[in-house]
Amino acid sequence: MNNDRYQLNKELAQMLKGGVIMDVTTPEQAVIAQEAGACAVMALERIPADIRAAGGVSRMSDPAMIKGIQKAVSIPVMAKCRIGHIAEAQILQAIEIDYIDESEVLTPADDVYHIDKTRFDVPFVCGARDLGEALRRIAEGASMIRTKGEPGTGDIVQAVRHMRKIQSEISSLAAKREDELFEAAKQLQVPLDLVRYVHENKKLPVVNFAAGGVATPADAALMMQLGAEGVFVGSGIFKSGDPAKRAAAIVKAVTNYNDPEMLASLSENLGEAMVGINEQEIAIIMEERGQ
Amino acid sequence: MIGILAVQGAFEEHKNMLEKIGARCVLLRKLSDIPPELDGIVLVGGESTVQRKLIKELGMFDVLKKHIDSGVPVLATCAGLILLADEISGNEDTCFGSLPVRVRRNAYGRQLGSFTAIGDIGDIKNFPMRFIRAPYIESVTSGNNDVDILNVTDGKITAVRYKNQIAMAFHPELTNDTRLHEEFLQMISRNNRIL
């Protein structure tokens, strides 16, 4: 992958900023998401809540199903491959997916190595719980980062934890003297040039979205106030009582995340939210997959 | 004061660039953000379907449309071009419809079709153009001689000027080249307003 392709891939993520990326499992859901104002959709066979419920090994979706969704909408279509599964990523590139999510929501294919994303022309988004993880994924070629909030739970606590951690680590890196950056790179286990970039620019070199556990307009606004540049919503929409209405409300909450009066009216009468489960109640902790 | 549409997309990039060359900007996220007097309007890159929906549902459509029709200078990039076009291939709904051109959305295909080029934009020579899931202009509405074609790349129209509107399929805000934004500021000062 040449540098210009990587730059274009980072820039596509810039175009998604201030938007909501929604998990969808059928072309019909994709159309609902697009009409509700999604800036992209994530095509997958089962949403995280159902993956969690079903158990077993969870893999890349059927390309025919993804193509059906690509035909149904005009917005970008993303899809997930397993961590380290080079061949699944190649297949997704072959069907011209707009973004690949190398995702801990699926069962990891490799428990040591992530995909060398610099070998691909399509862009990748990866999850991260802290600055070190984010910069390692970027060094591997990720052109967008998201938090690894515990998917399929409707519990926002992990996404909050990851976003706060990344933001506070960025602040403390920015406050360091230049001669302290070598040690910082060693501590973070990341390349020095990326440490220097964050020190100088006080931000990641790629766009950073919130993901995992977003179920309400207030959750989305919370993540934006904590520094997310946009939001992924997985199970939160199509596991709720009125998906179209909730989806549209979350979209507006991301745009006007600093306007409590608007958030109040957006939060009214949305019907039932997805049933959440607490982190203490779940057997599989997906955020620990791939570090 | 320049109003930058900030419902979704790459609005910070335009704000940074305009502030760098001395303009004052306000981000427009809802109706009450729109000041009574606007010297210019920027329609940014992002997803045009999302932006069109939010412009209408957040109550901004009528006021912005009135400003555009009354001659306030407009700079539109990528999704912004789609919002201005009076016809979209495939019978999609238009937004402001103030620019007499027919555009094709995602005209170069998916992200793998995104590309860069260097070309002249009217009198501005060797401008770096970044096309990201970009549209292009299929045609200028017949009989309209006021549309100035500023760039043709690979046989496709990618930038035009029409009265108070300058619109392009690519993203000057993602480069370090401020010449198109400076041109926009000149359109504003020619419009006899004070920044």
- Biggest interface: chains and residue counts? A-B, 38 and 36 residues
* Largest sheet: spatial strand order of chain A: 7-6-5-4-3-2-1-8
Approximately what portion of the residues of chain A adopt beta-strand conformation? 5-15%
Which bin fits the share of residues in helices of chain A?
Answer: 40-55%
- List unreliable stretches of 5+ residues of chain B: none
Biggest β-sheet of chain B: count, sense, barrel?
Answer: 7 strands, mixed
Shape of chain A: globular
Q: What pattern of helices and strands is seen along the backbone of chain A?
A: HEHEHHEHEEHEHHHEHEHHH
- The count of helical stretches of chain A stands at 13
Distance between the termini of chain A: 24 Å
| The first-level CATH class name of chain B | Alpha Beta
Give the assembly state of these chains. Answer: heterodimer
Mean of residue pLDDT of chain A?
93
Describe this structure in words.
The complex is a heterodimer of chains A (291) and B (195). Helices cover 44% and strands 12% of the residues of chain A. Chain A has 291 residues and is of the alpha/beta class. Chain A starts with a helix and ends in a 25-residue tail after the last helix. The relative contact order of chain A is 0.16. By secondary structure, chain B is of the alpha/beta class. Chain B has one domain: Rossmann fold (3-Layer(aba) Sandwich). Chain B has helices spanning 11-20, 48-57, 61-69, 79-84, 179-190, and strands at residues 2-5, 25-28, 40-43, 74-77, 85-88, 99-104, 115-121, 124-131, 136-140, 147-153, 156-162, 165-168. In chain B, the strands form three sheets. In chain B, strands 2-1-3-4-12-11-10 form a seven-stranded mixed beta sheet. A three-stranded mixed beta sheet of chain B has the order 5-6-9. Chain B has a two-stranded antiparallel sheet with strand order 7-8. Chains A and B meet through helix 1 and helix 12 of A and helix 1 and helix 2 of B.
